[in-house]
Amino acid sequence: MAWSTAYTPHLQRIDWTATLDQTPRYFGNSLLSHYGSICCTRRNTVITPVKLNLDSDFEVRALDGATGTLHWKVTTDYVMPAHNWTPMMNPCLMSTLTSTGHDIVAYPLGGGRVAFRDAEAKSANVTVATFYGDAVYKADPAAYASSVKICTPLTPTANGAVVFGFRVEGSNPAQLRSGIARVDMKGNATYAFADDLSGDPAVNTVKLNGAPALTVWSNEMYVVLSTGGFGRGVLARLNATTLAVKSRVALKDPKSGNDAIVDDFGTSSPVVGPDGDVFVGVLENPFPSNHDRGWMLHFSGDLSTSKVPGAFGWDDTPSIVPRWVVPSYHGPSNYLLLSKYNNYAGVGGDGKNKIALLDPHVSFNEPISGIQTMDEVATIVGPTPDEEHPEVPGAVREWCVNSAVVDIRRHSVILNCEDGVLYRWDLRTFALSESVRLNDGIGEAYTATVIGPDGHVYGVSNATLFAVGGSFTP
Question: Are 108 and 59 in contact (CB under 8 A)?
Fold first, then answer.
């Protein structure tokens, strides 16, 4: 849900930095990459994925949260699936602990395998598990390493396993096809193929970068399946242990009724609200009829009912904001959604790119799309003029965040902007109350923001992780 209960300082200074990508992929000043979200352990160790070369070679590094000092690093033979924008390589922290009370980190390997290790120890044993069987992999490692590729972040379960999507590119001896897998440290595993889960032979792969979403209360999982590229897709609800299908729904454009576009460029992932409602971002069809904003589709937990959508969904995983974090809100909902809300110049938009706080259970007639969408509780436009679109009056640099952390103790959200600045949006005053410059606004990619247990705020800009600190005065 992207909540943090740590008490954050005012955003005043950069305490340390760390490289996340030693060979970034640039197109002009644009950085065509997505970076895996960092993880912070209970003992304040920061786990980061690091890309070494343009399209290959990754490490997982553990840094001291206070100073950025390297604790340990390991190399992974993870291989990215076919891509345009460079996709993420995403470690995660497990729900189980070591015998010494340390967190366990899981990270992807080549051939669809997963490694598990102590997140704190400088020297630790690594356990490797293969969802289709270690013996099967070892019989022909080269064949599986070249064909079976983890294509989503790893999502930890409540009982010591991870779930993820994988793509199969080319043949392999076990005749694996693209699908969803679940595996734990002991090698207990199950998997299911995407075309079986979708019920449609053409919907035969897993959305690139689309992390599975889990529910704790019902042991269910939501995954986005697609035809690949910029095709159509299905949202499937699965039993999180057996991966059996419980229900599914075709993803549709709420205005045109056409199949929505499930793209392989963005990182939008399903999100489950506290009431069980499910949200997932898609692109509009026809494109770019909604100014390349897409839609935030909204369903009941059993997927039987389509509910009011959000006006923006492209490359965005919304954050859940408890209603009490927004003192001026007096509507019917127990939670709100924090959504990127850009209105891109060059594809019909006015370039007045915003962030929005939305009520998922109240609708209004949204002026750009002309249909009923989630009501805007508050919005704020980016503060920096967009020099790339001087022909568009009022155009501003866009918000470059795909999942923003909610600082519930300071009633705010913290997010990146394309201008190279990290901002705090105060949800009591709806003003940008604090900021710190990370760089000059180059090499911007859509990234997540995170808060560590010691209050450090983490943002990513130009392939670099920034640890932001300051004073802890009220």
Answer: no
In whole angstroms, give the CA distance from residue 136 to residue 341.
46
Tell me the three state secondary structure of residue 194.
helix
How far apart, in whole angstroms, are the C-alpha atoms of residue 430 and residue 436? 18
pLDDT in tens, the chain (474 residues): 578 889 999 999 999 999 999 999 998 878 888 887 899 999 999 999 999 999 899 999 999 999 999 999 999 999 999 998 888 899 999 988 888 899 999 999 999 999 999 999 999 999 999 999 999 999 999 999 999 999 999 999 998 999 999 999 999 999 999 999 999 999 999 999 999 999 999 999 999 999 999 998 889 999 999 999 999 999 999 999 999 999 999 999 999 999 999 999 889 999 999 999 999 999 999 999 999 999 999 999 999 999 999 999 989 999 999 999 999 999 999 999 999 999 999 899 999 999 999 999 999 999 999 999 999 999 999 999 998 888 899 999 999 888 999 999 999 999 999 999 999 999 999 999 999 999 998 878 888 999 999 999 999 999 999 999 999 988
Task: Compute the chain's Rg from CA coordinates.
Answer: 21
Per DSSP bridges, beta strands 401-403 and 447-448 are parallel
d(CA 44, CA 63) in angstroms, rounded, equals 9
Cα-based distances in Å from 264 to 23, 115, 179: 22, 25, 15
Helix runs in 52-188, H state only: 134-139, 141-147
Measured torsion, CA atoms of residues 137, 138, 142, 144, in degrees rounded to the nearest 10: 0
Distances (CA, A) of 423 to 12, 77, 355, 435, 471: 11, 36, 11, 4, 16
Phi, psi of 145 (to 5 degrees): -60, -35
- Is residue 466 within 8 A of residue 458, CB to CB? The reply is yes
Which residues contact residue 242 at a Cβ distance below 8 angstroms, ignoring those fewer than 6 apart?
190
Tokens of 94: 């497990």
Q: Cβ(30)–Cβ(11) under 8 Å?
A: no
C-alpha dist (Å) from residue 52 to 19, 77, 466: 10, 12, 18
